[in-house]
Amino acid sequence: MSEISSATMIGSAQDQNAPLLRTEFTLESGHGPVAKAELQASAQGIFEAYLGGAKVGDDVLSPGWSSYEWRLRYRSYEVTDLLQNTSEAPVVLGFGLGNGWFRGRLTWSGGRAFYGDRLGAIGALVITYEDGHQQVVRTDGSWTSGPSAVLADDFYDGQTIDARLASDAWLRPGFSSDSWTGVTALDFDVDKLVEYVGPPVVRHEELRPVKIWQSPAGRTLVDFGQNLVGWLKFSVRGERGETITLRHAEVLEDGELGVRPLRSAKATDELIMSGNDDFFEPTFTFHGFRYAEITGWPGELTVDSLVAVVVSSALERIGDFECSDPMLNQLHRNVVWGQRGNFVDVPTDCPQRDERLGWTGDLAVFSPTAVFLFDSSGFLRDWLRDLDVEQRAADGMVPFVVPDVIKFLPPNKDFGAQDSTSFWSDAAAWVPWAAWQAYGDRDALAEAFPAMAAHVRRVESKLSEQDLWDSGFQFADWLDPAAPPEDPAAAKADKSVVSTAAVYRSSATVAAAARELGLDAEAEHFAALAARVRRAFNTHYVTDQGQVLSDCPTVYALAIAFGLLDEPQLQFAGDRLAELVAENGYRVATGFAGTPYISDALTMTGHLDEAYRLLLERECPSWLYPVTMGATTIWERWDSMLPDGSINPGEMTSFNHYALGAVADWMHRVVGGLAPAAPGYQRVRIAPQPGGDLTWAKTSLRTPHGDVRVAWEIVDGELRVDADLPEGVTAELALPGSDIEIVTGGQSVSRSTTSEVRSHA
Fold it and tell me: Which CATH number covers residue 244?
């Protein structure tokens, strides 16, 4: 068992805000020099660890947000270097604590401390000497605690630091202060402690301002040129007791900071200056912002005065895409930044307002894009473990958000008490399947399978006698662009059609997963369920001709992309979808459910031209409309900002929501021409389908077997495709108008064709 399991969770005896905890110890003699030292640490709240006067690790916001009732993750740090040359003097081990997700504000309800009202740290420093002897320093009742310079800290509201109270004296041996007291042992079950599976949150990069100016109201505004997630950092010297105030927002409105979309979140940091040289970095909060309003700055504020620190889970970028259209390239960059900003330990819906929750529906549809852009394997596996424990505690129900903090709230007036809901709960099946396709990790699929199966079994129990999911609350095609701002659920698509289509897809997915894992009985059960639901869908929702109930783009997109239709209904549905897209001027007419699948549905039924026109449309609503408005991330609503520059009047208006960026998956596979033909890209499909006015595109991916690169260009009507394949990987090369060619790995491939190469503009 890990040494941290024998430590005690301790907190400040006076229950202070952002307390500091410390102990002193001396290295044991007679065992030679320190050969290895490891610190295992966690907290109720978020922690920063210090050893020998230095901060331990480059992570921030640890231990992140997990389902704290059952899982509290701990980090392990290699700290051998911090104990060199310390044999003669005492060494200080300390922790600084912040509220974080544990005790801070969560949800739009105004509630806080849902998991507990006492911050605490738990840790064990394991020191191994040259002769093999071990010394262990644990958190226990002998530690002391005292106040920090942090007067307030909250993710939604921001952080206040009083530099007059800042001192590193507590990190030096022999420190004592009248304001310091003992600690309290907190009631904590060490069996909750688990090691991290996913990556830590880290400082990703720093951005300098691109512009500083005075607003019409005379306020100082700073533009960092990119909607990001993190905080501001600077050094400054000003009059003692004076305050610098930093307000954050994603957009401007009428020339001022646009804070209405933040709802109740204050997103405001403060530094009370000491009169000396002060350093400010509020690491116990984070904000989603591009712009900052700064008041109280002493002297002239310049672009060299401060930086924006971008924070994100430490995900390795593995997938790239670029093409001849600069607008599409910006769209793709927006998708990347949207994932980076919302993958902050938990896959959140948005990073700025009083929400920032792990909404399951967003990830369900975005996961194929997520696993391509970044190595998200550990990140998703860790989150799926939280989904599993939440689901087990809720009789198989996958909640709206994971970790599930909504369960602590009164039933919502719109959806009542939580229950299984299509697309959102389907994350249990769709997310691990996307990870399996991308990474081919059979152990991860096997670990996720019980939750996959439990979700579908629960939904199976909710089907009508006709095998339809036509009861209960459903988000369905949430945020249909035709829905009024005050009623985002008022979609054109019939909710039971959307939900029943999702049941089929999840049943078929779980059946396929069972076959991969050799679970024959489960495979047979879920395949039979999928067949029943498919028959019911066609019987009750599809006419003999092929018209789908509610006759709108989303229902056709789902029926086609999920494989619910056979000929001749399939072709009619594709033609009807193309007709509806054209009638709407190639502007988007789908919400959360239909948008990720409409491009594939058009492509599968021979309407590639329409798919490209839909992608390349610039009028609102469209993927490129936000780009024309200067967006640097994906918006929650197609019209989060109206053409006149005003903010959408709806209550939910985020400018950093990754869900609608799921179109990047289609861009990778169809425009770029790179897709898995077997799990983990052991076999790949190279099948670019040029269209629009694009003249070239290139896509690359670091697969578990090596790098795959695909590039194509059109010159004088000829399509030329070049591809690089790693050893051991076989490719299916499918060029327009040509038969499929099987190509072995370990080589570069060049092919040309003039068949079906044309402009689709």
Answer: 2.60.120.260
